[in-house]
Amino acid sequence: MPEFDLRFSKEQIASRIEVLAAQIDRDYAGKNLILLVVLKGSLHFASDLARKMKLDPPIDFIQLASYHDDTKSSGIVQLKKDHDMTIEDRDVLIVEDIVDTGLTLEYLRELLEARRPASVSCVSLLAKPDAHQREVALEYVGFDIKNEFVVGYGLDHAEKYRSLPFIAVLRNPV
Ligand code: 5GP
């Protein structure tokens, strides 16, 4: 049986998301917002965040890969699925699960900037400031964490643990 060291409970996550949603609602009032959800790790975060927001923006998805079923970044970012809606002249808010090295976010920002959006910003539920290899802008962060591998609430280890309601460190990965 897997054992977990809890980092953030369901309740802590929910109350932080309420604060982020209110902040984003305020900052994007009157703007042409689109939420761009980065698959797959952000699925629960994006769903809860969008439903706490009052703005009801359009939502699209993009999928990138830099992890290959282990707990270390390969350092190479690949585009696996592009978004469908146009982002030209729109205020894009990237919804990320976690910013680790920052390589994925750097790649994504460059890709999107070339498509002439009005603006690009990012909200990430988690960030690992000690692991950042890039000075990449991150406008909204749920929680800063140490440089350790976490699972749950969308975050997987080899496609497991995404549906845990909390965020935790895996003691004995199986
Ligand atoms: P970066 O490019 O910033 O190094 O990594 C971004 C991606 O790596 C995240 O979107 C996530 O999919 C994965 N990742 C980074 N750290 C963790 C972690 O602690 N746990 C899990 N499950 N995935 C992580």
Structural class: alpha/beta
Q: N- to C-terminal separation?
A: 8 Å
Query: Which distinct ligands sit in these coordinates?
Result: guanosine-5'-monophosphate
What ranges have pLDDT less than 50 throughout 5 or more consecutive residues?
Answer: none
Overall morphology: globular
**H/E order of the elements?**
EHEHEEEHEEEE
Strand percentage, roughly? 25-35%
Percentage of residues assigned to helices: 10-25%
Number of helices: 3
- Tell me about the biggest sheet? 6 strands, mixed
Strand line-up of the largest beta sheet: 4-3-2-5-6-7
Number of strands: 9
User: What's the pLDDT, averaged over the residues?
Assistant: 94
Rg over CA atoms, rounded to whole Å, is 16 Å
Describe the 3D structure.
The chain is α/β, with parallel strands linked by helices and 174 residues long. Helices cover 22% and strands 34% of the residues. The protein has three helices and nine strands; from the N terminus they run βαβαβββαββββ. The protein has a six-stranded mixed β-sheet with strand order 4-3-2-5-6-7, sandwiched between helices. A three-stranded antiparallel β-sheet has the order 1-9-8. Helix 1 (10-27) packs across helix 2. The longest helix has 18 residues, at 10-27. The chain binds guanosine-5'-monophosphate.
